[in-house]
Design brief:
The chain is an alpha/beta fold. An 8-stranded mixed beta sheet has the order 3-2-1-4-5-6-7-8, sandwiched between helices. Helix 6 links the parallel strand 7 and strand 8. The protein binds nicotinamide-adenine-dinucleotide. The site of nicotinamide-adenine-dinucleotide has 29 residues, from helix 1, helix 4 and strand 6.
Length: 283
Amino acid sequence: MAIKTIGVVGAGIMGSGIAQVSAAAGLSVVMVDVNAAAIERGIGSIASSLDRLVKKEKLTAEQKETTLARIRGATDLADLKAVDFVIEAATENEALKIKILKDVAEMTGADTILATNTSSISITRLAAASGRPDRFIGMHFFNPVPVLPLVEVIRGLQTSDDTYNKVMALARQLGKDPITAKNSPGFVVNRILVPMINEAVFVLQEGLATAQEIDDGMKLGANHSIGPLALADLIGLDTLLAVMETLYEGFNEAKYRPAPLLREMVDAGYLGRKNGRGFFTYG
Ligand code: NAD
């Protein structure tokens, strides 16, 4: 059976992006967050993102309204009862995700596939905790979701072929180019990308160059379209720290040690773009 309705848990940076591309592809979306203000912000950011597409003439004003009308916000997981597929995109915290996934499994029909957008946590472990490991998978989108074409599809040890095939088809239906990755801390892209960003924080911490110079260096010398510290701010410093911690614990290797300055920034409440201050400041 094709997936027609989708539940998204978490209305933050990623949840709202996933809701937007799903609605744009014609699916009905229920976006759930514990925080009503986060839903309002999420829907607001989807509206602005669609407005930008209208301005660039990639979308008509009517298509924008139709897309927005397909998204419903909710604060109760019980609203996911009738959806065909649920993707969890809440805060990067394993205990929190396990609680959500157990609750979602209880609320939804036995055929509903559950996915997680985790950046680094073991899919096999989350699958086992969900109680429906064969109908569970990692579906890892990239930020900003409406712009970046990649989705990493990660099978847990018990993910069925049927679940995998349906999720690969869904990724393509959303206009994405999926790659398949094995379950391992950070999967493929974050295993490479996040330690690079962490190293940029060490370079800043050691006073080797300013944040701007580090970013200019990587843009001008390595042909990156965005500097590592601006990228850190875009991802969210709390999310980045959580990913480094998962890599460090998962591999038990010193090379994945989170930069102390990254931890210090998160402790200070500097989370990046999402709250206006990270390695750079935002209006
Ligand atoms: P975010 O901080 O922007 O949003 C997280 C949202 O989860 C918040 O709105 C919060 O209220 C909500 N939440 C917390 N507890 C909840 C609960 N019990 N039920 C429902 N909602 C709850 O974070 P984000 O950047 O959107 O990240 C979400 C997930 O996506 C994380 O697992 C992260 O690792 C992953 N991810 C992030 C990026 C990125 O660049 N930021 C990229 C790929 C994957």
